[in-house]
Here is the input.
Amino acid sequence: MSARWWVIANPYSGKRGEVAARARAALESQSIEYELHESENAAHVARLVRDGLAAGATRFAGVGGDGTAHLIVNALMAEPPDATPTLAILPAGSGSDFIRTFALPRTVEGAAAHLATDTVYPCDVGKLSGSFGERYFLNAANVGVAAASVGTTNRLPRRLGSLRYTIGFWLSLARFPTRQVRVTAGRRSYEGPAINIVAANGQYFGGGMNVAPNATVMDGKFDLQVFHGPRRLAFSVMPRVIRGTHLRHRAVSRFVTETFEFECEREWPIEADGELLGNGSVKGEILPGALHFKI
Here is the structure.
């Protein structure tokens, strides 16, 4: 087992041209053994992960946001190594929400110090199946208005930082109608009007909103929430979502489940870890302890 970290940096996270240099400086300041590679696109990330596995790497670090971690996780799960891989995140983007669950430092420099220790945390991974094929996610997946807001958010200026997520949501909500849906969560189900369904593994997404305050990444279950009722209820629900006090709101139905199925009369958009996947019905299952997460 290699002690060296196989580091994949997204050069488009943070300020252009600075990400890899910051990561190198931070890792060397901690005397961490590493091999750093800059990714060019999603396909290149997958190829870099395969190269790492072929070289015997078991410890992978993503320099970027949740999207970078998402691509690394998908590559690892597509061709899982014999030993459970370890994943670390050195946050360099505006949307590094997964690490909030662990209260990790939100800078490359602060997070790099954690790579010098041996402490890891067993971590579940979510798996989605739909018209897009199979995709894996680390933090959370959404079907509905939160997924629709991803495209809106990505078109907003990056200088807005995490505020982009809030603005993107409200802009999307204004034109996203409720629909009749059916959600099956193990032996329980919900059937009726809804505007969003979230399957959470971590606790935070959308720029720091505490959507799943009771979620844990090592229980082998999703924290599944259905947001229903008329759109006007969003004005009372969303302030509570930010603080994590929304679970008893009448517009929220919560399930704790190992699997789920979602069907809608219209093809709603689907996203995972901030990456748009496609549209339509979707099935989800949890993969217990599929990763070790570096804390």
About this structure: The chain is about 25% helix and 35% strand.
